[in-house]
Amino acid sequence: MSESLPPFVLQLPFLRIFFMGRPSVAIFAILSGYVNALKPIKQTRAGHIDYALAGVAKSAFRRTGRFMIPAILATTLSWLVCQFGGYGLAKNVDSAWIRDTSPLPSTSIAGAFYDLFNNLITTWTDGGNEYDRIQWTLSYLLRGSMLVYLTVVATAYVQSRYRMLIYGILYFYYWKMGDPVIGINIYAGMLLAELTFDPDVQAHVADHPHVYSFLSTAFIFLGTFTLSYPEENPEWARWSTGLLHLGYHIFPEGAEFARYYPALGSEILIFGIFFNPTAKRLLSSPALSWLGKMSFAVYLIHAPLIRSLLAWMLYGCSSQPRSLGKDGNGNDLPPAWIPLTSRWLLFLTMPVFYFLLYRLAHLWTAHVDPWCARATSWVEERVFRDDSRLEKSVLLA
Fold first, then answer.
1. What is the pTM (predicted TM-score) of this model?
2. Which of these, 275, 138, 293, lies nearest to 201 by C-alpha position?
3. What count of Cα atoms within 13 Å lies in the side-chain half-sphere of residue 339?
4. Residue 70's closest CA among 302, 300, 378, 306?
5. Cα–Cα distance between 394 and 287 in angstroms, integer?
6. How far is CA 273 from the centre of its chain?
């Protein structure tokens, strides 16, 4: 797509969201706020505040291990692939994203281990990870989880209706502060968790099913349209130009619209689903539940597989292009990027790639995730107080 050419079908609103990464990050942050707050909110509403606080202390510890250990393993595997030349082809293909996210092998063995250690650290300090750049979100999501636990502790003795007011104030604070990645999404998720157990809200929904069915359907449509906002050049299409002009009125000055719109759209979409029984029933189907269970593993392994397996599937049979000629000094210019042989190859290859991706994600979920959980539990048993371990059966009851 360009300013003078019409968009491809997959660049149209609604369809384009299946190939966008930022809505996925926003949805994951909202669900993180929802899931992490759900149990302690239920306990505080039931008057079991001591159990809620003890559970939050344990959850904060476990959450760190459940995030960091799988990320360390995924980065190490990507590092091994890189050092053995697995990204060599990807570094020369005509896809800018694949090429720019493919690291080069280190120049020495000592340098390779230093690079691994450095990237394992910077993943959590500044989001930098040369071996898997999409892991920049993990430090934000872990920070968001801790924000949930901190808010739960700070509001444990607050009445539920005032607690929801606090969520709204904090949402507005992060909106104005310019944090559309984590801050606003976390508190949208926490508000959703609070509404789950609010009897007045549930009774109102039950008494007005047709009204909420209409409103939730409208929210789902509006949310999906809103989070379709493109990351670049929104002025090239009429529908995104309208959103661009609207953004100047609703977002803080200097805001990055390509982050605010996916966050806002994801929140509208999820609230629409929350009040729509049909949508919730469809999303609870066995197939979609299985896909949801695979999501974290897919997130961790898909980028290294794109740069290695998919790159070889798409470009492995392509011939190296010839030199572009000579420069003004008579030196040979470097050859052009390796082209994709045929678009048909893309359509034939992608189903195979997705099958392999989800097969490997299933193996990761079945074997690696349980090992990470056991490793976290092993550390927990050795660092927690004895009386905390004795309370475990009561808290999990």
1. 0.87
2. 275
3. 7
4. 300
5. 34
6. 19
